[in-house]
Amino acid sequence: MTRLVDIRLGRGAQLLMGALPIVVLLFVYLLASEARHLENPVDKVLPTFEAMAQAIRGFTTDRDPSTDRVVLVADTLASLYRLGIGLAIATASALVLGLLLGVMPLARAVLGPTVAVIAVIPPVAVLPILFIVLGLDEASKIALIAIGIAPFMTRDLTSFVANLPVEQTVKAQTLGANSWQLAIRVALPQLMPRLIEALRLSMGPAWVFLIASEAVASDVGLGYRIFLVRRYFAMDIILPYVAWISLLAIAADALLLFISRRGFPWAHGAGR
Q1: What are all long-range contacts of 222-225, with beta carbons under 8 Å and residues at least 24 apart?
Q2: DSSP code per residue over 189-223
Q3: Residue of 123, 105, 218 whose CA lies nearest to 169
Q4: What is residue 10's three-state secondary structure?
Q5: Could you write out the three-class secondary structure of 221-259?
Q6: Which pTM was predicted?
Q7: How large is the C-alpha radius of gyration of the chain?
Q8: Is the separation of the CB atoms in 48 and 32 below 8 Å?
């Protein structure tokens, strides 16, 4: 008798099984939206696919007055710019601090508690402070993303480096390696796949912080557009925007996974 834990699916079967729940959800939504519109033709809670298609046609052809770009393009570029800069700052900071705290016990003892305290502060709670200190422009939005995910990434990378086999450190020191060489030549090559994995796990929270900051103070962006049209109950715009954000997040995750597997195949093992 075959156990469920022993069942292995091929690549094609995995894609098919993964797509099945999405198709079911879309079908259920189709039935629910059609049922609501039969009772109330002007219902806005569950827009029909036809209504969403018309909305998509609008924001992919109309131009934003402030940027003179197509609305969806302007919103996407603005949000990706903020997200990209925030992620870059957070990743660079976490990499440096993770190496420093992981390799040097003294630095870990001095800075570790501070990083731990910052990590438990809800980032959205400091958003008003960022607006006061940095203003309502791009800096505060980028800072929220960086502050929101850098402490988590730093703690994860620090733990990874600190738990590397002691034998590696001993052998490197026996060969004359100093602290700098231990960090760059021993810890860093092994840390890179973990850095990419930590970045993948941080993408979800990063999107949350981006949308939150754009909703409060912005005149362009994916989050701005969603919160702008919610006052009109424009679910026919909100739902496609949410789907577009999801597609962007999936594409970013797939790209990071591709880079990790191509650059560091040894970290993924055979058959993954």
Answers
A1: 222/75, 222/76, 222/78, 222/79, 223/79, 224/75, 225/59, 225/71, 225/75
A2: HHHHHHHHHHHHHHHHHHHHHHHHHHHHS-SSSHH
A3: 105
A4: coil
A5: CHHHHHHHHHHHCCHHHHHHHHHHHHHHHHHHHHHHHHH
A6: 0.86
A7: 23
A8: no
Structure tokens at 82: 């903020």
Query: At which residue do the structure tokens 């925030």 appear?
Result: 86
Superfamily of domain 77-267: MetI-like (1.10.3720.10)
CB-CB contact of 121 with 103 (8 Å):
no
Q: What would the two tokens of residue 41 be?
A: 């033709």
Mean pLDDT, rounded, for 243-255: 95
Q: Residue 199 and residue 216: Cα distance in Å, rounded?
A: 25
Q: Is the pLDDT of residue 271 over 60?
A: no
Q: Which residue has the higher pLDDT, 9 or 257?
A: 257
Give the DSSP letter of residue 42: T
Check if the beta carbon of residue 177 is closer than 8 Å to that of residue 185. Answer: yes
Q: In angstroms, rounded to a whole number, what is the distance separating the alpha carbons of residues 214 and 124? A: 12
Closest C-alpha among 75, 71, 154, 143 to residue 115? 154
pLDDT single digits (tens) 104-134? 989 999 999 999 998 888 888 888 898 888 8
Percent pLDDT > 70 in the chain is 98
What residues does each domain of the chain span? 77-267
Count of CB atoms situated within 10 Å of the CB of 68: 8
Q: Are residues 145 and 211 in contact, defined by beta-carbon separation less than 8 angstroms? A: no
